[in-house]
Amino acid sequence: MILxxxxxxxxxxxxxxxxxxxxxxxxxTPNNFWRNQETxxxxxxxxxxxxxxxxxxxxxxxxxxxxGYRGESWAKFLREMGIATFRIDYYGPRxxxxxxxxxxxxxxxxxxxxxxxxxxxxxxxxxxGVMGFSRGGTLTLLALxxxxxxxxxxxxxxxxxxxxxxxxxxxxxxxxxxAAVLMxxxxxxxxxPAADCRMRAAEGQEDGKDVKTVVYPGGHHGFDDDNSRTVxxxxxxxxxxxxxxxxxxxxxxxxxxxxxxxxx
Length: 264
Hints:
alpha/beta
């Protein structure tokens, strides 16, 4: 992770978000090089019920299928833990319904979301994390390399990638001691090789970092979705198979991690 005092090349202007207000909010993303445009995105902010004072929060990044069940179900689970959720739609505002290989590939959308959350007086700026699925999980890992000026001063405590790409991610050296990385993947995922995620975790652990990969026996891509199917991705066939038991285990891993890093 790179934490720097060098400002980003671009602009970020956001008025403070409304305190403890659920809803869909618009925010800018800095330095977004997808089609050379800086695009205002949307995020659905929801607070847990019956919680007072500043609360921790998680940015949630959807996969290539766009907004849907996975983000909604995980957000509900997190709010039941007492964590606010900010589900970012980085497709809809760009006129996309689904991604494909040429969809957005930079973590700047996450940075903009983090900076936006930092303006909300009911969010604990020191207890914010990022979670994503598939492409969103890849973006979550890429977000480990950030400037605090891009994130509104936020230094995320958790980076959770659910079957996100680990192949070209290098994050070990700069991971702060109080931050953690969790990678969850199915053994039979034909799109994201489990071996790559194991390698990333081994590199982190050798360097004394809080990095963990969990590989679920019998698991496929999309194990936490609500629809088993086979899809074509860039000319390759990818099996997506729902597994409720693996989903339960994954949620237990996430709950354990967030309780620890958020000190809940």
